[in-house]
Amino acid sequence: MMLASARSEIDESPLESAEALEKRLYEIGAKRYHNLHPFHRMLHGGKLNKGQVQAWALNRYYYQSSIPIKDAVVLSRFRDRNIRLEWRHRIEDHDGDIGTEGGIERWLILTDGLGLDRAYVESTRGILPATRFAVDAYVNFVGQRTPLEAIASSLTELFAPNLHEERIAGMLEHYDFITPNVMAYFKRRLDQATRDAQFALNFVKEHARTPEERQAVCEALIFKTNVLWVQLDALHHAYVCGHIPPGAFDPEALA
């Protein structure tokens, strides 16, 4: 029902070309990407308190730390060595390498800067149930659907650089507990996401050869936007509306 509802918001005409596919993907991003979520508007506009920002960073860690696991699953779907070589750097971008800092370490610098205990963050004990379910669903998706859909689900990266720029500027302007150092993750992703998105876009345009395959690509992107959106729904419900589920992080416990 969720995907059917999403389709009703966009053009449903058959996708007869790679160019039509690309246009549809950008239309989906314009209408469904999580930059439109009220929680992000509050985060970037300085409307959250420190505890709410902590909750966002803590929950988002589970997503960030699951990305290289997701990418390892995607990589395993391909016999083509060249594709594996291209995709492999994504894992290194997040995990890092021996003596090299990766995205997960940069995210932990953010949570350190917000005053969260690193062992607690890495344990993921305090994340919201919806965060865990959504992220796990994403990892399962790339393993169970076609390789084409697995790559297509990463296409939210087409829209990420603009969001990162907005986040860097907004959070540095509005929160005195945010410093340029703790925003290092987003600064690095400005280039990485652009590079990764271009590869994925070129791949789906080349390999989605029928209207049905192009529609599957669009459905995969819609699924991924839902994965991102529901995480913010859960954060808003718990930390703005005040309905924190049992066992989840409670900012007042740190006060």
Question: What can you see in these coordinates?
Answer:
The chain is an all-alpha fold and 255 residues long. It has one domain: Heme Oxygenase, Chain A, CATH 1.20.910. 70% of the residues lie in helices and 0% in strands. It is built from twelve helices and no strands. It has helices spanning 2-7, 18-32, 38-44, 50-76, 81-95, 103-113, 118-123, 129-144, 147-152, 160-174, 184-207, 211-240. The protein starts with a helix and ends in a 15-residue tail after the last helix. Mean pLDDT is 91; it is low at 1-8.
In helices, the fraction of residues equals 55-70%
Counting H and I runs of at least 4 residues, what is the number of helices?
A: 12
- Class by alpha and beta content: mainly alpha
- Total strand segments: 0
Helix and strand succession?
A: HHHHHHHHHHHH
Give a short summary of the structure.
Residues 1-8 have low confidence and may be disordered. This protein is 70% helix and 0% strand.
Quick tags:
Heme Oxygenase, Chain A, 255 residues, mainly alpha, disordered N terminus, globular
Layout of SSEs?
Elements: H1 2-7, H2 18-32, H3 38-44, H4 50-76, H5 81-95, H6 103-113, H7 118-123, H8 129-144, H9 147-152, H10 160-174, H11 184-207, H12 211-240
Helix pairs in contact: 2-11, 2-12, 4-5, 4-6, 4-8, 4-12, 6-11, 8-12, 10-11
